[in-house]
Amino acid sequence: MSDGQPLSSVYTKALFRMALTETPSLLPVWFDRRVLDAYREDSAYQLVRTNSAGRLKLEGSFSIDFGIPDEEGPIHVAAEALLRLPARERARWLPHLVTLPLSVAFCQMQMAPGSCFDDGDTRPC
Q1: In this predicted structure, what is the pLDDT of residue 27?
Q2: Which pLDDT tens digit goes with each residue over 58-102?
Q3: Where are the domains of the chain?
């Protein structure tokens, strides 16, 4: 423990600090663990794990490491690891993406910078 915080919180904050100050490609992206089901059923892929991390590998093509925070919830992957996947593999992962609630209008604004969006009057926040 450090500063009275659980160790997991200390490392989580350190990872995000690193990602937000020097290595944004380390930002985690979460996926429903069922994304791995199809790979388990295909002998061309190797899927191994420890208690807290796993690796998916297709010999001669790619490998991707993922975090396992618990036995029930989503797994997480660094954004940079996803970008190294072949496009067909990223397409397999995308339907399993897990996110917090997002503002649809804000997402649209981010995807089309400079566009005009009218979603109501401005007011103090």
Answers
A1: 95
A2: 999 999 999 999 999 999 999 999 999 999 999 999 999 999 898
A3: 30-111
User: At 17, which helix (H) or strand (E)?
Assistant: helix 7-21
Q: What is 34-103 written as a DSSP string?
A: GGGHHHHT-TTEEEEE-SSEEEEEETTTEEEEEE--SSSS-EEEEHHHHHHS-HHHHHHHGGGEE-----
Distance, in Å, from the CA atom of 24 to the CA atom of 94, rounded to the nearest integer, reads 20
How would residue 1 be classed by pLDDT, with cut points 50, 70 and 90? very low
Under a CB-based contact definition with an 8 Å cutoff, are residues 95 and 42 in contact? no
Nearest-10 Cα torsion for 86, 28, 34, 95: -60
For the record, the structure tokens of 35 come out as 């994304």
- As given in the structure block, the two tokens for residue 4 are 């009275």
